Sequence to fold (778 residues):
Amino acid sequence: MHNFTYHSPTKVIFGQGTVPKIVPELQKAGISRVLLLTGGKSVFASGLYDTIVTLFREAGISFETVSGVQPNPRLSKVREAVEAAGKSRAQAVVPVGGGSVFDSSKAIAAAVGSGHDVWDIITRKHAITGALPIFGILTLSGTSSEINDTAVINNTDTNDKMPVAHPLLYPAVSIVDPSLQYTVPLQQVRYGGFDTIVHVLESYLAGNDTAGVITEHSEAYVRAVMRCLNALPEKLNDYATRSELTFCATYAFSGWCGLGRASRGDFATHRIGHALSALYDMPHAVTLSVIIPNWMEYVLGKGLNRDVFARFAVTVLGVPETAADPAAAGIDALRAFIHSLDMPSRLRDVDITAKDIPALAENAARTLPFGSVIPMDLATITAVLERSL
Amino acid sequence: MHNFTYHSPTKVIFGQGTVPKIVPELQKAGISRVLLLTGGKSVFASGLYDTIVTLFREAGISFETVSGVQPNPRLSKVREAVEAAGKSRAQAVVPVGGGSVFDSSKAIAAAVGSGHDVWDIITRKHAITGALPIFGILTLSGTSSEINDTAVINNTDTNDKMPVAHPLLYPAVSIVDPSLQYTVPLQQVRYGGFDTIVHVLESYLAGNDTAGVITEHSEAYVRAVMRCLNALPEKLNDYATRSELTFCATYAFSGWCGLGRASRGDFATHRIGHALSALYDMPHAVTLSVIIPNWMEYVLGKGLNRDVFARFAVTVLGVPETAADPAAAGIDALRAFIHSLDMPSRLRDVDITAKDIPALAENAARTLPFGSVIPMDLATITAVLERSL
Fold:
């Protein structure tokens, strides 16, 4: 195994009916005043907000609510919440939502704990020297923000989208109740599952490692998510299926799948996908499904990573070991799986053509360097996009 | 998945040559005075102690050394170390050793941090209200004390062996360098690997769960350890083999293999094994190898857990799915694997006979309740021991 550092300090309380457990966790930490942070309407419509407010009132935990956090969370909302946290002397931030609400809570926690303007902290003008603890309730899986130390905040004034990460920003406690996600529509559940699969593949396929326990754990994650997605739509509200999907979404992207491997992650698929998100209104998972099989063909065409691609085909996708070219057959099988989810596997399926490629490649190249199998540049990004047509 | 709480906050720095990384970790935490805790001679003979002392002197970290911690760590040594930590105003404990040194460091950390006598804390006369942070260096895998919050301390005055556990006692940082364990003899390495396998099986076989990602992760751990043990003795000093074994020893017993399962663990094999340790001078792993295949036969004879036993046989032990009775064939295969490690699989192999059983059963029964597949009592413990003859 290659050397690594692994740190995943968040306490995860997982399962149906676990929301009330946030109260004893706050109490054990001596916290009686919190900032409650939410997204848009769904947390109010579902009754979850009322549940939490009742729990807090009964326990004597005072709270100030800031709602309306949007996807791609905005700096202006974060600033509003920082002010509210200061005025109410909040001792902790309680995000109730998905990745954008958790991400925002981290920026708020750092700004309040460090006593500096939040954008000065995100742009590293001031260091993070303290942070309020975060006790969150997850309502939508996807980014693993519930167990990582990272946030991405969008400054709409300057058009900058900036990441911030610090060990003080791991949530102290994350409540993950899969049944809170029953209201998510079928296609969104599929998108979430496919995103989880690509999170695993970004490290699993990043080097040509074909042995060891982390290789097998990665394969187990992908097989599990595929089993669950294949069981839909029949099992859409089946707890066993949804809890397995939710578990994998949280933990498959904890860093575990990169431990001891030659590369912690390739991320060319994600970075090129981000360019598609930036220029077209496409769901994140679709930006991945139209790139990854074609990125794989591109890599295989260069004669790279054939062993791990073949292993993936056989152990995960059911390609017979005796196939003439298991690595190539695996890419076809992945494409067939993508189509079974009513998702596209080529740019032409989403009406993107050759003339659109230069702008996409240029946009993706702005986030260079990336790519560990093939370190990317403008020419290789263009080549992957051309193969994806 | 069944509901669970998972918390594993220790930062693990894993790999060859990682010992010097303890210095920046202490510095980042603002620590300049530590209690250095070691076992017997090996840490001095190997030069590791001198390496650490040189690192600390160069970094201006002052230290007080307490050495001589023994297996089954003694209260008297812990008290000596608590006094030394107090006198030198240590801000952290640095255990350098195996499970007994890590366990002792937790008792010391709790006593100093809570300001009470260590035995009063272990016997819960006083609560743990604080603890010095622990920054450890592992030199012998086995107990996973490097990533858990538990210690077992032996009071030789009262003949009591007591566990203590508290979330404040997770090590902050554990340095795990597999190459520090190259000096461990072949048979000890086998014992360590077999102990890891049984740690997984205690939860994997505890219910009849045969699906899901945790099932597959557990199987991957056992297959990985078996592959490594089968590669010995040729690969005894092969880093790939030893790092995989060390990784599995640390993480397979982190609680992960029990997540979401019907039972977090059975532990009848461990508890009955402890009685063998108490009454005979046997290595821990041998107490497990002479019980577990026979416990499996006993469980299978009751018609329980046939599905998971059959799955274990096929996915881990290479028994063909078409075998007449895969579950039974799996037990035979496990026994053959045990023998391939030069280990016994029955009590008669270690000269324990029917007349010894009553005393063994009574000793094991002192730690009731245990057993989730079959909740144990004196009669069932006796029956498992009789089947183990």
Summary: The longest strand of chain B covers residues 4-14. Chain B touches chain A through 33 residues (CB under 8 Å). DSSP finds 16 helices and eight strands in chain B. The mean pLDDT of chain B is 95.
